[in-house]
Write a structure and sequence with these properties.
This protein is mainly alpha-helical. It folds into 3 domains: 72 residues, no CATH class; 81 residues, no CATH class; 111 residues, no CATH class. 50% of the residues lie in helices and 9% in strands. It starts with a helix and ends with a helix.
Length: 337
């Protein structure tokens, strides 16, 4: 082997080494931060790169784009949310996006009052948006698929943390929520509901009233039993939260007599029995508080005048009036109208 040949071979090897050393950080240097990009059908590699640059890092986004182009990645039909973890290599990110390996999106909803609020939160989290979900939830035929009505479909939406793909359709989401709903309503819980003379959805409706009535978790069972007593005795529930729901204003501090006259199937001052559906999305723990409500014979309650958040309970109407007058005087002293 001549000196010239050796020189050429050494030069080629040196060049290959340099290129390799340059390529290693280019291909494997990890993302400096975590981010999530959401890809819709019709996106191009450059559009994906722009999202990566905005959500993760400019250099990282450019390197992913270059690698995807070298892979001849077809991304026009790709759709989903892709999570870039800190330290993930551009090669791994490019491969996952190229192959459509999307990540789940966590969806947590607690303390959600109305179905419209839930729809809005869902729409802000998933690709389909609120209008598509609202259309499905208001569809009587779709609700009937789950044995529900547009008034009771909210019973399926049990507050918790779930994980779905970002591009899940409203219909697929409801299928999944129905599975979770059925998992919660075990034979034991159904038996408890039956002993109360209620269906699972009626229990959820009672729970929704209880949850609006008291912020004290340790009082919910007691409040639940009071409403169960009234319901089982054929009395009207006369629950203030149902008036607020009927009026569409949960900020009301003081229910007046004229308010209780609103013509609504949800106004339990005017209608017998339960409202046609829940007035909020009750927590699972509140549903259990209804199912396990401790026995007592109270049928009247009034918020305590010390504004502690608890209530005074009684079985005697005269005593109830005394409690009510004391509470009204406390409201007056604070200028609450």
């Amino acid at each position: 082997m001549t000196k010239t040949t050796k020189w050429i071979i050494c030069s080629v090897l040196a060049l290959m080494l340099v290129l390799t050393l340059c390529a290693v950080p280019y291909v494997f240097m990890g993302a400096p931060a975590e981010g999530v990009i959401k890809v819709r059908k019709g996106s191009t590699i450059d559009m994906i790169s722009d999202s990566l640059q905005a959500q993760v890092d400019v250099s990282f986004g450019k390197r992913v784009a270059t690698l995807m182009k070298l892979m001849n990645a077809k991304v026009e039909n790709r759709e989903g949310a892709f999570r870039i973890k800190q330290g993930m290599s551009p090669f791994t990110a490019a491969r996952r996006i190229k192959n459509g390996i999307q990540d789940g999106v966590k969806f947590t909803f607690n303390n959600v009052r109305t179905l419209d609020e839930w729809i809005q939160r869902w729409g802000e989290t998933f690709m389909a948006g609120p209008d598509e979900m609202r259309k499905v939830l208001k569809d009587s035929a779709m609700c009937a698929k789950y044995g529900k009505t547009p008034q009771t479909i909210a019973c399926m939406l049990m507050p918790d943390t779930y994980e779905f793909y970002w591009n899940i359709t409203p219909e697929k989401m409801l299928d999944r929520m129905f599975d979770y709903y059925n998992d919660f309503w075990t034979s034991e819980r159904k038996a408890k509901a039956e002993r109360l003379g209620l269906t699972p959805d009626e229990v959820a409706t009672v729970a929704s009233i209880v949850e609006e009535e008291t912020v004290k978790a340790d009082e919910r069972g007691k409040v639940a039993r009071l409403y169960l007593n009234r319901y089982q005795q054929g009395m009207r529930l006369q629950a203030d939260p149902t008036v607020k729901f009927a009026l569409g204003d949960f900020s009301i501090k003081r229910i007046t007599v004229p308010m209780t006259q609103i013509n609504s199937p949800y106004n339990t001052y005017r209608v017998n029995g339960l409202p046609p559906g829940p007035i909020r999305l009750p927590e699972k723990s509140t549903i259990d508080a209804v199912l396990d409500a401790p026995q007592h014979d109270y049928i009247y309650m009034c918020a305590k005048s010390d504004f502690s958040g608890y209530h005074d309970f009684t079985r005697d109407y005269a005593a109830h009036l005394d409690n009510a007058h004391r509470y009204q005087a406390a409201l007056n002293s604070r200028g609450i109208k």
